[in-house]
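Onboarding guide, step 5: your first structure request.
Type a short instruction followed by the sequence, for example:

Predict the 3D structure of this protein.
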Amino acid sequence: MATFLYKLGRLAFRRRHFVALIWVALLTLAGVGAASAPAAGNSSFSIPGTEAQKAFDLLEQRFPGMSADGATARVVFKAADGEKMTDAANKATVKKTVKELRSGSEVASVADPYTGHAVSKNGTIAYASVKYKVSGMELEDSSRDALKEAAQDARDAGLTVEVGGDALQATPETGSSEVIGLAVAAVVLVITFGSLLAAGFPLLTAIIGVGIGVSTITALANALDLGTTTSTLASMIGLAVGIDYALFIVSRYRSELAEGREREEAAGRAVGTAGSAVVFAGLTVVIALVGLSVVNIPMLTKMGVAAAGTVAIAVLIALTLIPALLGYAGRRIKPAGEKSKLLGGGRKAKNPKNAGRPNMGTRWASFVVRRPVAVLLLGVIGLGAAAVPATSLELGLPDDGSQPVSTTQRRAYDLLSEGFGPGFNGPLMVVVDAKDSAHPKAAFTKVGDEIKGLKDVVTVTPATPNKAGDTATITVIPNSKPSSTTTEDLVHAIRDKGADITSATDAKVLVTGSTAMNIDVSQKLNDALLPYLALVVGLAFLLLIVVFRSILVPLKAALGFLLSVMAALGAVVAVFQWGWLSGLMNVEETGPVMSMMPIFMVGVVFGLAMDYEVFLVTRMREAYVHGEKAGQAVVTGFRYGARVVTAAAIIMIAVFSGFIGSSESMVKMIGFGLAVAVFFDAFIVRMAIVPAVLALLGKKAWWLPRWLDRALPNVDVEGEGLRTAEERRDADPDGERELVRV
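The system replies with structure tokens like these:
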């Protein structure tokens, strides 16, 4: 592989006009496609195989036009102090608002509070339920605007009015997170390279790659039913890995220049060596993202595949456009260790004694090699302590109760809890399928009676049958809030009762609604976590065996990743569930950790962690293959790779940390979790535990059974095939070094 990529790098360097033209054409084509594509609606959402989804599908068949999975909204009214919602003026305002709400083209029905018994016992709070024909993710912006305008008109009349439900979803306010991430990345790159031009290349190519990826997603969004979250994830990951991959190749190019090679040769060698690491690092990220399809949630699968496509584009750009741009830059890109004149290049060192001093990476690696046991124990114990809170991890999906108190959804949630009880925000819909029952009406009655006898039940409405009389719906109001474990226990209790009812009446009982759907999604994600982890780690383990030609190095990489992920989950639990540092993080409401967080973190962080593993350890492997002793190879790997990996990790942390400022708790949690995970993995696992383990293992770290060595393809990530006979003689003038099989 190194030889092929070496030729590709030299070709791109020589034919830079042609390469640049191809990428500009692709960017233009993707942009035109995005601009001319039909506007895509919000992505549909379904969870195949769950009971809640089966109930929704059944309602669509038995209650035509009901829009069982349609968006809902609750317009909550509160009278002024000393007034009642039953006062004539307030009643007239509510009636007018209900009439205004019914005029929407996507509105299926609006329930009048005064005819639907939706006024609190003390008469101060009432609500109007709005049902839409389409789901919350498919609702047009015009319908949301009409909902807001109707609420505002009622406010102007003197009432306190708030709107809850999934029809009016809060738009996350992330501020200028991506701009902040790019700004930090630019500063880090300038410090790393000592050159504005060299620092600009990774930023430019990353933006081009994200532009092509996101534009392609936009162009295909309508045809493939892709939502806005798909392009958001693709841009976030594409930007991060795009900068990293270009960073590694530009850094290697400058190192090759420092060794006295001509620029075209240096570009070829940079792509042949660092480019090989980029290819395999990119493959691990792609495997992790595409592997999200194991969960069998269509929306998550589409997000993973789209983000993987953007990563693939980032790899191709790093291998072709970067050497082309290096060709354009010519002598303006300085060898490693030299700064541009603008940043102080050419000046005499203030302290000549430090001129030949080893860099920080060399000094740190030398320390670890001398004290491997102490460093290993300190790193493992530290991560283990951080992971302790993860033992009390509680998973769930956020509802309006987790929104900031500044949002209308949260205020509507609080008003409904005040007037009708906390469980009113999470009603359960029980669907009774009595098509195979000899006495459907008796089955409906029995289901209602059985549910009334359960704990945590406040209200059970009478069964509402369809026209055929073979299916009915029953609404159950719990006594606890939707995200509580008590409500989850109630859902399971109803389903357990349903099994007994089925055996007695042949009627099937299904529990659905947004609360039950959230519970089912959480369970589905929990069940998929271990298979997903086994698939992703297993495939990447095999891939790393091919890259490093070792059994223990990939095993160490996987175990280190598990340590960093568990520690990051512990930090998430401590902040978002326990409330530690909640004020600093502006966490207004603690509660269960988002159920998607563990599997999402595993997918994204595993890919990024393997990036650092591949880039750092391939340098060690390269030094070992070229004849250095195992301990010295660790130091050599850090001498060339530590600075670059550190810069890459800081950039990644900056990109993810920008999302901590979001007003949306879910986005805030993802940003914090990923930033902490990258910090733990890059600076504790890869920078401390990895060199300590390799120092302890010595040459055993690179052991591989002979039969497996013969069976594996020789991908030559180390670039041994690029070395000339003269270079081999210079490295081993006496021919005494041990030949290391690659």
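Each response can be followed by summary notes, for example: The radius of gyration is 30 Å.
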